[in-house]
Amino acid sequence: MSMAGNLRKVTSLRKVGGLRGVGGLRKVARLARRGARVDLSHPARSPLGSSVVNCVTYREGVRQPPGRDLVESVERIRKTGDGFVWLGLHEPTEDEFADIADLFGLHPLAVEDAVHAHQRPKVERYDQTLFAVFKTVCYVEHTELTATSEVVDTGEIMVFVGRDFVITVRHGRHGSLGPMREELESSPEQLAQGPAAVLHALADHVVDGYLAATDAVQADIDQVETDVFAPDGARTDPGRIYQLKRELLELKRAVVPLGRPLQILATQPMRVIAPEIQAYFRDVDDHLKRATEQIAAFDELLNSILQAHLAQVTVAQNEDMRKITAWAAVIAVPTMVCGMYGMNFDHMPELHWRFGYPLAMSLITVACVALYRGFRRNGWL
């Protein structure tokens, strides 16, 4: 069995009175050894159907072989004072997370936030544990942008950082940390700096996702801008612009609030983050500012595109009204003449004249042609 252990046994921690010291750890370890061993150290979901995605021990930046169970691994690390445990979960339930919280001494308020999600990006300190919330962003690929297209999808990652452990809780359909874990394991010197290095890598990973999403959204904005300023731009569906603005607002809600937590991580002294690690958080904050500035620029650009589109629609409507007015003026001439000669009077000028009809038709034609040329010369037709 891996370090994650038999979850059916670990979730029985409450029944044995929780974890209160080394004696409690040993007692739960003995209970866990009675059941069948299941390897949970692979990056896939647990065959038990639990929320544990991965659980690995690192010592001097090197991944250690799986232990018997999670409790034994934590006990060994706390005895030697060397290394840390990285436990990854995906959308755990309260029951699944409760005993893990007891094992690592997590604060109930932080546990509640981690289970129920829908939190703003933040950083909070609870005794010896640091709790951070990050919003993840993923660009949704689409062949054509419509008024109902989903452009960005958001999720959440909660992180508990202690002296000898890192617990990541992921919510959402995207944001897998497997590639990030593999990249960190390829740099043992970085992992050797402890849980704070994992927190920095996670923050950098999330912010890189912001930059990738903003670059992809820019391509959609460029396409909409090209369509609006095309010769038939007035026929562009304004719903596409509004949809982009809605999706950009969702992106803004995920990115902008992270600025203050990153400043805290980069500037305020913390026990679980060494000063040399804090310098790297300043670099992540710089990248975040770039993403924030891009979003603000996109918002202004979309406002300008929307205003330009509305102006084009107004101009097109004016053009249509001028054409209608011009044709109405042209048609008014024969209507007037024919209406006058359609009156039933015996005594009318040229009523019985041989050339009366050709003359009336000639006058109508000349007047209509003159009006048409005049309107065409002035751009009305």
UniProtKB/TrEMBL annotation:
Q: Which Gene3D superfamilies match?
A: CorA soluble domain-like, Magnesium transport protein CorA, transmembrane region
Subcellular localization, as worded in the UniProt entry: Cell membrane
Q: What topology does the record note for this protein and the membrane?
A: Multi-pass membrane protein
Keywords for the protein's UniProt record, in alphabetical order: Cell membrane, Ion transport, Magnesium, Membrane, Transmembrane, Transmembrane helix, Transport
GO molecular function, a single term? cobalt ion transmembrane transporter activity
One Gene Ontology CC term in the entry? plasma membrane
> Transmembrane segments in this chain: where?
324-343, 355-375
Q: Which Pfam families match?
A: CorA
List the InterPro entries hit by this protein, alphabetically: CorA_cytoplasmic_dom (IPR045861), CorA_TM1_TM2 (IPR045863), MgTranspt_CorA/ZnTranspt_ZntB (IPR002523)
Q: Which reaction does it catalyse?
A: Mg(2+)(in) = Mg(2+)(out)
Could you name the domain of life of the organism this protein comes from? Bacteria
What's the family?
Answer: Belongs to the CorA metal ion transporter (MIT) (TC 1.A.35) family.
Function per UniProt: Mediates influx of magnesium ions. Alternates between open and closed states. Activated by low cytoplasmic Mg(2+) levels. Inactive when cytoplasmic Mg(2+) levels are high.
The name this protein goes by in its record: Magnesium transporter CorA
Q: What organism does the record attribute this protein to? A: Streptomyces venezuelae
